[in-house]
Design brief:
Blueprint (H helix, E strand, L loop, with lengths): L2 E6 L5 H14 L12 E5 L15 E8 L4 H19 L6 E8 L3 E2 L2 E2 L1
Parallel strand pairs: 1-2, 3-4
Antiparallel strand pairs: 1-3, 5-6
């Protein structure tokens, strides 16, 4: 039931998208019981973005939505993995990345809720 939405201001090739998919699938395991089996991902590239009043650096904004509460330790570990992935794959510096974690009490799927 996790969902990771990624917005970046740089292009993402098909190969880079697959690599990020694999790295994000590994990162979601920072949360106990979360695996790629239920992971949904979306990628938006070439977004018009500003950070600190500037738009001249590669940058990213991600939202990670999960069923239940967001554990601080797990989210910190995941942030590290996400930032490493973005730096390795898209050359986005970790200091130009924001990640928002959202815990959901109710999550719908297949016509009902978990």
């Amino acid at each position: 039931m996790p969902m990771i939405q990624t917005k970046v201001n740089v292009p993402i090739s098909a190969e880079q998208e697959i690599t990020l998919k694999e790295k994000f699938a590994d990162a979601i395991t920072c949360f106990p019981g979360k695996t790629e089996a239920w992971l949904m991902l979306s990628f938006e590239d070439n977004c018009r973005m500003f950070f600190k009043g500037e738009n001249n650096k590669p940058m990213a904004y991600l939202e990670v939505a999960l069923l239940g509460n967001v554990d601080a330790g797990a989210s910190s570990a995941m942030s590290g993995k996400i930032c490493t992935a973005l730096q390795e794959v898209l050359s986005i510096s970790p200091d130009c990345v924001y990640i928002r974690y959202i815990g959901a009490e109710h999550w719908g799927w297949n016509g009902s809720n978990f």
